[in-house]
Amino acid sequence: MKILLLEPFYGGSHQQWADGLMRHSAHELRLYSLPDIYWKWRMHGAAVSFAERFLEDDFLPDLILATDMLDFSTFLGLTKQKSVGIKTAIYFHENQLAYPWSPTDEDVKDQRDNHYKYINYTSALAADRVFFNSDYNRTSFLNALVPFLDGFPDHQNKPTLVKIGQKSEVLPLGLDLSRLDAYKTPSSKGAPIVLWNHRWEYDKNPDLFFETLFALKVEGLKFRLIVLGQKYQKSPAIFDRVKAELGEELIHFGYVDSLEAYAQYLWQADILPVTSIQDFFGGSIVEAMYCACVPLLPNRLAYPQHLDEDAKEYLYDSELEFKQKLRTMIHDFRKGKVNLQDQ
């Protein structure tokens, strides 16, 4: 089978997914991609860029596979003379209907965020099949469509939601975890090492993560810290305080551009506290857990699916419980198995 893969936001987990699919698929894939910047413009403009390229390309696929960052309906409309009759599918890494926008974003105030929600809606409607990387992603998208369409004055077309639901399913994110094995390092000694390995953005809730560590340090707890992840132009201000307040604890602070360095830091770390207010799958969490990091995860979003039933003690339901359990994990880590059930 010949597959055309359309990825407008080629970076981070999107790039890892696309590269893994290209590497491991038994089919012939051709990738169209754009750099992972200007995400709002990508959702509007990538359809035209990709349509022009597709019409000039002699590649005729059996399947066109897009991701949720593409205005798929516009792409298909612009390429109808060539794409008609070709099977189509869209893969949702995230969805804009359940994505928490930063309160400082001007588009929220003016309700321009609805543009991106509507692009996700019409793209799902246009595709023959709709795939989501987790059950949480699928459920949150389908549930949010009803109140979203309720916000429009008439002709809300709600019967289309049944059609989307019938052609959608969960297809978990494929991760080549074995690629991390070659960089395994011996277990660390001394104070346990806390890990941050996420994007430096609002939806990962770094304020709760670092404010908690600041407070635990004041209490006298001993720990070390590795901070990884990609920094963007408008990263949360709290990152500017980390070196000043946790400088003695820091082992590393900043993005690493090699798999070897990234994997070595994961294997070196001990505890993975997660504070995100949104995550549709959590690839970085799965990678760290594979590298033997003990997780502390919110009891919501896609996170519970990553734990067995007998490991639910590593979930928390409130900010207070997060601080209490993290305090116990750091204090008791070198004493053996941490018991969080009484926290």
Features:
6-stranded parallel sheet; globular; alpha/beta; 13 helices; 3-stranded parallel sheet; 343 residues; single chain
Question: Please, could you describe this protein's structure?
Answer:
By secondary structure, the chain is of the alpha/beta class. The chain is 40% helix and 17% strand. β8, α10 and β9 form a beta-alpha-beta unit. The longest helix is centred in the first third of the chain and has 18 residues.
Strand order of the largest sheet: 2-1-3-4-5-6
- N-to-C CA distance: 53 Å
Approximate helicity band: 40-55%
Q: Please give the count of helices.
A: 13
The biggest sheet, with number of strands, parallel, antiparallel or mixed sense and barrel status, is:
6 strands, parallel
Q: β content, as a range? A: 15-25%
